[in-house]
Every structure is written in C-alpha cells, then in structure tokens.
C-alpha cells in the first residue's frame, strides 16, 4: 500500500489527550500548528505564511511516552503517515489533516531537550489515564448519541480526535 509520509515541524497547540480506543488501545492526540516564515526583501521584514493545522496521533506504548513528554507550546518535529478526512458539518465542509506519528520529539533547533529512555511495561494504568479515563467512561455511557448527529468521521464521533477547527485561532495565539 502506498502511504503518504510527511515530516512537519511546528508548535504543540493543545494539551496532549490520552484515550483508550477499541480493545484498550492507548491513543495520544494533540493539535499541531505549522507556520512558515519568509523574509520580504521589499519591506525588509519577516512575514508569516498560512498556518497549517494537523491532528497528531500516537498509539500503544508511544501514546504514553508522548503524554509524558510533550507539552502545549513546545516546538516539535513529527514524522508519520498522513491522511485527510473531509466531512460536512452544520457550518460547511470541514477538513482534518491527521498524522499517525512514527517519530516525534522536541525540535532541538529551537531549544534544549533531555532524553530518558522509556523502559518497562507500557500498559495503561489509572494513573496514566488520569482524567481521560473518566472521559472515556462517560463517552461509553451515552454521550455518543449527541456526537453521531453531527455526521463527523467515526474517530471524531468516538471522541478520539478533537474537532479540528474548534479553537485553532485561540490555540495558535497561545502557542506563539
């Protein structure tokens, strides 16, 4: 199968959310903003280009290490398989760019990072899940009906992904 592999550098715009998917699959998810900058020689100033938004996901043991390692506002580099989902919402067509990460870490061109090797059992515990465990239980007990009415992709309806355009502007302002 041909897959689109992409590498993106940008800023973590939301807190990392940890979820349990089907079969207790650990999933970490966060929004990533990537804004290119270029020098405008005519005006002698740096100019921001158009910000691209991505939902980044990590699975299994990597989900736990991402939750423990990545914070909102951090510069990161993400490599992974990209896919695009399009759906109709009440206010028009929505598009979500999702990267299933195969490699993810701090962007050391923008700061200093410390590495600690992940060892031991990568299974989920209540401590790892924290407040996310309660959200998963609540979604399984009946909150799903409301989400199904929005005709969103199944990952959104299952609560595994954030609505991609909910607070992009607010998140960008906080990340910069």
Name the features.
176 residues, alpha+beta, OB fold (Dihydrolipoamide Acetyltransferase, E2P), five-stranded mixed β-barrel, two-stranded antiparallel ribbon, 5 helices, 8 strands, 39% strand
Strand-helix topology:
Elements: E1 4-12, E2 17-20, E3 26-34, E4 37-40, E5 45-48, E6 52-59, H1 61-69, E7 75-89, E8 92-106, H2 126-129, H3 131-148, H4 154-157, H5 168-175
Parallel strand pairs: 6-8
Antiparallel strand pairs: 1-3, 1-7, 2-3, 3-6, 4-5, 7-8
Word description of this protein:
With 176 residues, this protein is of the alpha+beta class. The protein has a single domain (4-170), classed as Nucleic acid-binding proteins (OB fold (Dihydrolipoamide Acetyltransferase, E2P), Beta Barrel), CATH 2.40.50.140. It contains five helices and eight strands; from the N terminus they run ββββββαββαααα. The chain has helices spanning 61-69, 126-129, 131-148, 154-157, 168-175; strands at 4-12, 17-20, 26-34, 37-40, 45-48, 52-59, 75-89, 92-106. The strands form two sheets. Strands 1-3-6-8-7 form a five-stranded mixed β-barrel. A hairpin with a 5-residue loop joins strand 2 (17-20) and strand 3. The radius of gyration is 17 Å and the shape is globular. It starts with a strand and ends with a helix. The model is unreliable at 135-140 and 142-169 (pLDDT under 50).
């Amino acid at each position: 199968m041909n897959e689109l592999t992409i590498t993106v550098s940008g800023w973590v715009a939301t807190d990392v959310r940890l979820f349990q998917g089907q079969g207790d699959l650990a999933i970490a998810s966060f929004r990533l903003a990537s804004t290119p900058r270029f020098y405008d020689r005519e005006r002698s100033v740096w100019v921001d280009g158009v910000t691209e938004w991505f939902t980044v996901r990590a699975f299994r043991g990597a989900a736990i290490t991402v939750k423990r390692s990545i914070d909102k506002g951090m510069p990161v580099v993400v490599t992974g398989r990209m896919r695009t989902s399009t759906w109709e919402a009440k206010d028009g067509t929505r598009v979500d760019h999702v990267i299933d990460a195969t490699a993810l870490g701090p962007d050391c061109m923008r700061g200093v990072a410390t590495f600690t090797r992940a060892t031991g059992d990568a299974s989920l515990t209540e401590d790892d899940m924290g407040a996310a465990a309660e959200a998963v239980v609540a979604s399984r007990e009946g909150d799903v009906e409301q989400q199904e009415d929005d005709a969103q992709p199944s990952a959104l309806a299952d609560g595994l992904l954030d609505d991609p355009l909910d607070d992009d502007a607010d998140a960008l302002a906080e990340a910069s």
